[in-house]
Amino acid sequence: MATEAMTCRARAALRELKSQFPKIQFVFASYWSLAGKTLQAVRESEPGGLGHACEMETSIMLFLHPEKVKTALAKRDGPKHADLYRKADMQYSRPVYFVNEFHEVSKTGTIGHPDLASADKGEKFLTGIVHEVLEFVDQFAEW
Fold it and tell me: Residue 53: which region, alpha, beta or left (left: phi > 0; alpha: psi -120 to 50)?
């Protein structure tokens, strides 16, 4: 899944930067990891429901810009594997990383369950994400 690949690349890049600039503190965090409590509390989907153009991202767009969402096209897609080694989800890191082209895992551009999206959930997701990310930023500012 793209989120895992980004995390790996970001960590590798930060490792290189730290070697070049040892006196600077570098950190990496993803909003979906920092806001794990919110995602878990608001989502209705099972593992595999949050990925790309998913329940959460579509809900946020329905809240912010409903005119830009084509709900008739909001279909479930993404890896169909039942085992957790291959299931893709923002909240469930897999012990194995698979390298795929996007078209190999999604015909529609969706990874997850956009059919469960709603503007009400979008407001809850966005409010919670902002709150949890700001909690981290506030603490990080004191380090």
Answer: left
